Amino acid sequence: MTALAADRNTPYQDAELIAVPMAAATTIYAGSLVAANASGYAVPGSTATTLTALGRAEEQAVNAGSAGDKTVLVRRGKAFQFANDGSDPVVQGDLGKSCYITDDQTVSHTSTGKSVAGQVMGLDSAGVWVWID
């Protein structure tokens, strides 16, 4: 391949709503925090250091088969409200900083043993607003 020497019509997509192939034997619930595992398949958020946050599940999806047999629709590029981990809470000083995945509906302050969920955009009595892009 060589660099361009003329204009190129480069295809694009908005990538706000994506269909992600699911890991084998996995159930993802609508509204949950979805992550990609080390193999690139969608899994529910959990405490692990090998996940990449993708966004919020738009639907419930069940993959009873092999990895990639089913997909789940995931919305990204928004701030989503998740529960604040009571034992390791995100605090006001975390505004604009990373928070971390505890499970598929909960985020926490500390990174130890966890993957990044996204950036803290706000806190209120109902939880933490997390930007996942």
Explain the overall architecture.
The protein has strands spanning 17-21, 26-28, 33-36, 42-44, 52-57, 61-63, 71-75, 78-84, 98-103, 106-108, 116-124, 127-132. Strand 9 and strand 10 form a beta hairpin. The mean pLDDT is 97. It is globular, with a radius of gyration of 16 Å. The protein starts with 16 loop residues before the first strand and ends with a strand. Helix content is 0%, strand content 45%. With 133 residues, it is an all-beta fold. Strands 1-7-5-3-4 form a 5-stranded antiparallel beta sheet, with no helix packed on it.
Using brief descriptors, characterize the structure shown.
single chain, 133 residues, mainly beta, five-stranded antiparallel sheet, five-stranded mixed beta barrel, 12 strands, 0% helix, 45% strand, globular
Quick take:
The protein has 133 residues and is an all-beta fold. It contains no helices and 12 strands.
The SS-based structural class is: mainly beta
SSE pattern, N- to C-terminal:
EEEEEEEEEEEE
Mean pLDDT: 97
Number of helices: 0
Strand content: over 45%
Q: What level of helicity do the residues show?
A: under 10%
Provide the low-confidence segments as ranges: none
The best one-word shape is globular
How would you summarize the topology of this molecule?
Blueprint: E1 17-21, E2 26-28, E3 33-36, E4 42-44, E5 52-57, E6 61-63, E7 71-75, E8 78-84, E9 98-103, E10 106-108, E11 116-124, E12 127-132
Parallel strand pairs: 8-10
Antiparallel strand pairs: 1-7, 2-6, 3-4, 3-5, 5-7, 8-12, 9-10, 9-11, 11-12
